[in-house]
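Whether sequence alone determines local backbone shape is best considered at the level of individual chains. For completeness, the protein is quoted in full, as a sequence line and a line of structure tokens:
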Amino acid sequence: MDLSSVIIAVTGVAGTLGGSLLTQRGSERAKLREIELVREHEEIRESRSLRRTCYAELNRDARQFNTALNRHLHVMRERGAEDADGVALDEAKNAHRDRYSEAQMIAPGEVLVRASAVNQALNKVYGQVKRLERGAPRPGETTETAAQAQYAVWDMLRTMKFPPRTGQRVFTLLG
């Protein structure tokens, strides 16, 4: 046999094996890219689901806190609040506080601007209610002014659900 025949045979075998290896590597890379894309897609979907759940629960807890404030103000006007009456209000406040804290970790700035405004308004009314209960209201604070402030929170809650600039739900804006 001629040396050139051996070299050609070795080159042919090496080329065949090398081609197979390159094809296999290319296939593996494509599979890894596909797996990574699936993971990214799944992470995006999970993140979106987490945010939507957080937004819905934040909205619910803010509404429940506002409703508890409304009920408490009615009780105060009708018969005067007792310790037992404050339990439901404090539970609603605590639930909202926890949900708002969670939203601060998850929600983007646009949502937090609205949520913060609602949170501040709810806590302002809560403070008025507590001062009225203690008999130490600030000048101008009455059950009527507290009720008006509490009622105004409903409009803020609506803007938290439907931002005025787009008319779309917050969920839609944030994906």
Residues 162-168, 170-175 have pLDDT under 50 and may be disordered. Helices lie at 3-78, 83-106, 109-134, 143-161, 170-173. The chain is about 85% helix and 0% strand.
